[in-house]
């Protein structure tokens, strides 16, 4: 395993702070505005091109945006001041006044020897045609932009793509089409399965972020698409399952160019899942993962991440022998609290020495135990009234929890045919106070990790699911019947979190969202009546926790399940390995 780096690093961003500094684009950058680019079907897209003055040829970074290539910070779809007023704070970062939303900053990249091409999506702002709903079709247009950039007289023919969120998501679909001039991609916190990653969490429709995102995506669309813009949100509310056909994942095996993937533990509602999935499944032999648990935009535009991106592109677009090919494949950032983290480098994700520890729910003590309680028991909650179930375990020694967690519950719905379950993992310090972490959009009241399930969508996808990561098959619908007790397996978002000796992990189960975060919500739950959770005896309700031993190598342990093991073919006793590490509160 990689050596532990226990040195704590303090994020310098003060709490409740946001400051976006905007500087003028340097005068020695050549700017070509509204350059026409013809797509394969004859539609004309428009792009801005930023080039270094006096440089004959240079590699190119391309992004294609729905948010407006000419929209400066004051016209972004996200109002940073409004975010701060709602309790979300973006921190501090610096952009040139020509930086499109979540796009590479030409003020940074052009002085370092790159051309930057920012094009409007078809049917948006200055580009012709009508918008395309399917990501694969939008990617075809973007692939034409890549090829155009690779053939210009000021281009070396080496083209990369960079950008965050939607600009990252589109990169996966473009790369799968394998345009010849595309030489590298750097998708930063983008989704790879829009339906399961963002639109419908565990079968529960997400209502706030998805509708905001849809509106932001289409604010620059042409009037010809107005009727589609009006009806699509209604369709998303009424028939969310249908959108899995509109926004399916790309063919990962066809993505073969080098990839530097950015993923955060802080953006779990919209993007964390997709970033990790993309890195894990991408077909490229040259891939790197940059993880962090801090603020999205502050980190993306910050010096450390930009340096990593620059070295990556210098190596694969310029051919610099800068040693990037020797960089370990995974930069792992482990959170300690809201402003403290540590980092180290690993070669694989998930970490190969991970021990998947089964902790069983004990209704009698409210604890998480290393063995199944002998007697079956049940407890009920009334989710409409905000009831919760809480189970805890305390760590006797410093412990790192890194990777994918999963929760199996045996559940029953009284007087209902379905139920929505929301799960959170929390860290509690030795004095009993909640330890908070960064959340989506700068929300500073986040927890360790989240999970969601609509029980009627409990059927698993056997090809996508692993021993530690259950993935639902949204096409199957299995309503409950009176008195029926069923097992459900809940995927919990990946993360890396450090628990000091004496701190505790709390598993919280409820039927509603956990925070008042306005940007990610599930407003259309189907809960009624009581939820009943069964544990003990024949009901193996348990949390599967990915623990990284500090001093035990993979060769020291026996009975460790391989990553390809079936979902529940896992050991149930780890006392010989961990001793008295887990003690009930």
TrEMBL record:
<dbReference type="InterPro" id="IPR000383">
    <property type="entry name" value="Xaa-Pro-like_dom"/>
</dbReference>
<dbReference type="InterPro" id="IPR013736">
    <property type="entry name" value="Xaa-Pro_dipept_C"/>
</dbReference>
<protein>
    <submittedName>
        <fullName>CocE/NonD family hydrolase</fullName>
    </submittedName>
</protein>
<dbReference type="Pfam" id="PF02129">
    <property type="entry name" value="Peptidase_S15"/>
</dbReference>
<feature type="domain" description="Xaa-Pro dipeptidyl-peptidase C-terminal">
    <location>
        <begin position="310"/>
        <end position="544"/>
    </location>
</feature>
<dbReference type="Pfam" id="PF08530">
    <property type="entry name" value="PepX_C"/>
</dbReference>
<dbReference type="GO" id="GO:0016787">
    <property type="term" value="F:hydrolase activity"/>
</dbReference>
<dbReference type="InterPro" id="IPR005674">
    <property type="entry name" value="CocE/Ser_esterase"/>
</dbReference>
<dbReference type="InterPro" id="IPR050585">
    <property type="entry name" value="Xaa-Pro_dipeptidyl-ppase/CocE"/>
</dbReference>
<dbReference type="InterPro" id="IPR008979">
    <property type="entry name" value="Galactose-bd-like_sf"/>
</dbReference>
<keyword id="KW-0378">Hydrolase</keyword>
<dbReference type="InterPro" id="IPR029058">
    <property type="entry name" value="AB_hydrolase_fold"/>
</dbReference>
């Amino acid at each position: 395993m990689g050596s532990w780096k226990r040195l704590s690093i303090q994020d310098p961003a003060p709490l409740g702070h946001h400051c976006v500094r905007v500087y003028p684009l340097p005068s020695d950058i050549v700017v070509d505005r509204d350059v026409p680019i013809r797509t394969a079907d004859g539609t004309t897209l428009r792009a801005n091109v930023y080039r270094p003055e006096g440089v004959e040829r240079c590699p190119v970074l391309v992004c294609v945006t729905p948010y407006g290539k000419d929209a400066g910070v004051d016209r972004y779809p996200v109002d940073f001041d409004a975010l701060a007023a709602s309790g979300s704070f973006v921190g501090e970062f610096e952009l040139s006044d020509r930086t499109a939303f979540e796009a590479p900053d030409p003020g940074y990249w052009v002085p370092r020897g790159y051309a930057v091409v920012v094009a409007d999506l078809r049917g948006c702002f200055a580009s012709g045609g009508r918008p395309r709903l399917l990501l694969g079709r939008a990617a075809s247009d973007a692939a034409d932009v890549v090829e155009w950039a690779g053939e210009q007289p000021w281009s070396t023919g080496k083209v990369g793509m960079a950008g965050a969120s939607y600009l990252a998501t589109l990169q996966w679909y473009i790369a799968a089409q394998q345009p010849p001039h595309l030489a590298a991609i750097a998708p930063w916190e983008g989704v790879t399965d829009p339906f399961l990653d963002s639109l419908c969490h565990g079968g529960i429709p997400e209502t706030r972020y998805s509708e905001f995102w849809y509106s932001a995506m289409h604010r620059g669309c042409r009037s010809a698409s107005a009727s589609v813009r009006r009806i699509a949100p209604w369709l998303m509310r009424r028939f969310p399952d249908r959108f899995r056909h509109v926004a399916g994942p790309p063919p990962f095996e066809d993505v073969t160019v080098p990839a530097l993937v950015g993923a955060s533990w802080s953006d779990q509602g919209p993007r964390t899942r997709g970033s990790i999935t993309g890195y894990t499944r991408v077909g490229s032999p040259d891939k790197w993962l940059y993880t962090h648990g801090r603020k999205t935009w502050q980190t993306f535009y910050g010096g450390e991440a930009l340096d990593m991106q620059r070295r990556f592109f210098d190596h694969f677009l310029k051919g610099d022998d800068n040693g990037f090919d020797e960089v370990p494949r995974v930069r792992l950032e482990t959170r300690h609290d809201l402003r403290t983290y540590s980092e180290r480098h690993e070669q694989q994700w998930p970490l190969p020495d991970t021990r998947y520890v089964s902790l069983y729910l004990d209704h009698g003590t409210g604890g998480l135990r290393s063995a199944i309680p002998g007697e079956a028991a049940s407890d009920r909650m009334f989710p409409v009234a905000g009831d919760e179930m809480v189970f805890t375990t305390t760590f006797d020694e410093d412990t790192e929890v890194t990777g994918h967690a999963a929760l199996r519950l045996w559940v029953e719905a009284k007087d209902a045919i379905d139920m929505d379950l929301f799960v959170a993992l929390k860290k509690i310090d030795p004095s009993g106070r909640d330890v908070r972490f960064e959340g989506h959009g700068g929300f500073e009241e986040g927890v360790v990790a989240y999970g969601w399930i609509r029980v009627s969508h409990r059927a698993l996808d056997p090809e996508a699911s692993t021993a530690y990561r259950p993935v639902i098959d949204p096409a199957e619908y299995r309503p409950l019947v009176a008195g029926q007790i069923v097992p459900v397996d809940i995927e919990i978002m990946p993360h890396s979190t450090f628990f000091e000796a004496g701190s505790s992990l709390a598993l919280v189960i409820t039927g509603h969202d956990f925070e008042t975060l306005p940007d990610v919500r599930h407003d259309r739950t189907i809960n009624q009546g009581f939820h009943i959770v069964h544990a003990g005896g024949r009901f193996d309700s348990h949390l599967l926790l990915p623990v990284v031993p500090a001093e035990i190598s993979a060769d020291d342990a026996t009975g460790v399940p391989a990553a390809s093991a079936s979902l529940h073919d896992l050991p149930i006793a780890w006392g010989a390995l961990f001793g008295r590490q887990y003690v009930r509160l």
